[in-house]
Batch of 2 targets.
Target 1
Amino acid sequence: MSSKQGKASLGVLPEQKEDYSQYEESELRWDRIIPAGIIILLMLIFGIYWLLAAPDAATNTAKKPAFETTSTKLETTTDVKKIQVVESHKAAVIVEERVAPIIPKQTKQVEQVEQVEQVEQVKSKQKVPVKQASTTQPSPVKILDTHIKRAQLSSNLEKGMPVDALSAQVIMSEAGIIKVHLYTEMTDLHGQYLFHEWYRNGKKQARVKIPVNHKHQRSSSSKFINQQMLGDWHVKVIDEQDRLYIQADFKVSSP
């Protein structure tokens, strides 16, 4: 048999004149449907679980800072209380340390005030103010010798100098006692003795001896006068030969 007889010649296939698809039978592939259904079911379960779990996680996340904040507040409050206790303890210690030295100082100050008041009371008794009837009246003191440079009646002396000049009319104080000073300044009488003599209504009440030891000297004498010693007063300054240097006349009357 030749090679030409072994080959088949193929031409164009004839066109299909009828539709056979309507006669095809459908076959369900359960080997694919069941796994796909299981997968879909698992996906639904996972989605539902995720939806339910998400709010719980958000709630827990929101609540957690509040708990931490409360805890922090409690710890802060506890720390503040501890600090307050420590600070109050320190304050107590500081107060005790400061108060201790203050008490003696106050006591000393009170004692000093009491001493000053006592001194002032003594001074007030010694320095009884003397009232004058008028300051326009002429001086009650007369200088009768050139060796006397100054002579003055005063209610008090400070640092050896008169604080005021009394007039011829002197008013008794409300305390019922006054002190009158006769202040003098002299020169070129050193080596002599001068005498201050105080008279009330013509009767001698006191005699004060004053030695003159300096060329220029200041000297004074004084007399307490109470309610029973009202009247006319006369003071004179003389030497051992009864030479008259100063005389002063004044009247003490009740207020």
Note: The two ends are 191 Å apart (CA to CA).
Target 2
Amino acid sequence: MNYLINQVMSGARPIERLSEKLHLRTILALSLIFLLLGCASVPHTGRRQFNMVSDSRLDAVGLQVFNEIVTHAPQSTDQRLTEIVEKVARRVAKAAESIDKPGFKWDIKVIDDDSPNAVCLPGGKIIVQSGILPYAKNEAGLAAIIAHEVAHAVARHSGERLSQQMALHGALSVGGEMLKKKEGEALSNSAKILLGVLGIGGTVGVVLPYSRVHEFEADRIGQIYMARAGYDPAEAPRFWERMSKINKPPIPVWLSTHPADEDRVRKLREFLPEAQKVYSEATVKYGIGNALETKRSVE
């Protein structure tokens, strides 16, 4: 009785307090269930990851984003470079399938855009922007780019980031929204979040880039894929050295979600012996391949 009086005197209602406690317990219980059911291991690193999004749903969202991008972005008219990108991407995709068997339905598009970027969406939808080709410089540099992005997709990093958002904002609201959207409708919130995960979400107000852990994992796995595809994995750190020449705002490493260029190059050199072993066993070796011969060059 005194407890009830104290609750009334403090302005709180016992039933509301009880409801809040039950709601909190329900959330904690759901979180525990999701944690138990949503754990998987990242290939090659063995890191346990929290993933609440099914592969089929993630691939469907990836396809939605892919269709949105290729519908509105101008595709490259440089047939020679497009054919090289497609050739290298197919080799990397074949390597990924032979090693980790993601079972993706691969597709490759080259977008005419000066910004240096590339992405592999969930389900194997690869987009390469023409602005990154001068930094690639040769087929092996291009393989390093594509293999890195493919590694993100195979490791389900975007699903992990989406799961973190679902955990933060409520699995019922975000997860329910993901289930409601059908193909052909406007971009769902999950698709917008995915754009942010991939670093291309500025226009939809969502920025949720990969973490440094994800980036280092993609670097390591990507080197293995490019080596299996027949490209010299030693070109990967050289490519990132060229990328370091891009002017970037001075952001402290501890505030950045991406590794500092020098840290990335150092780690890639640490990973190199593992990739070189794979390269030594490759059926066909292309070395660094042909030069891309783009209009703009990067030393």
Note: Residues 125 and 172 are 28 Å apart (CA to CA).
